[in-house]
Amino acid sequence: MKKFLKYWLPVLIWAGVIFFFSNQSYLESPLPQVWDFAMRKTAHITEYFILTWLLLRALFASQTVSISRKKIIFLAIVLSIFYAVTDEFHQSFILGRNPALYDIGFDSFGAILGVLIYKVFKKKFG
After folding, report:
1. Which of 7, 41, 88, 114 could share a disulfide with 49, CB 3.0–4.6 Å?
2. Residue 110's pLDDT is what?
3. Among 92, 70, 72, 68, which residue's Cα sits nearest to residue 80?
């Protein structure tokens, strides 16, 4: 139970945070359109960067059989992208929101960036 609370509960909480933000109607921003776009897409990248880091942490900590690092990393990316797809589907039911394939692209970029930076940190700090 301690392992779940330490490693998997943060994943579930963060998925809930993403769900919460996706459940909001589109809010107008006072920023110029180019800055609003940049801010929203940076948020997509950041959300899935964090989700992937949390998934990597949980998957590595929960490893009970010998699974290669590559498979765990691949699984973390697949789970993040799958959640991005379901999140966009969820947005199709929210007033003022629309699903967008390019948002899944930004989310996927965040997941892959998370893995790349995770690898750099692992090499540098063990």
Report:
1. 114
2. 97
3. 72
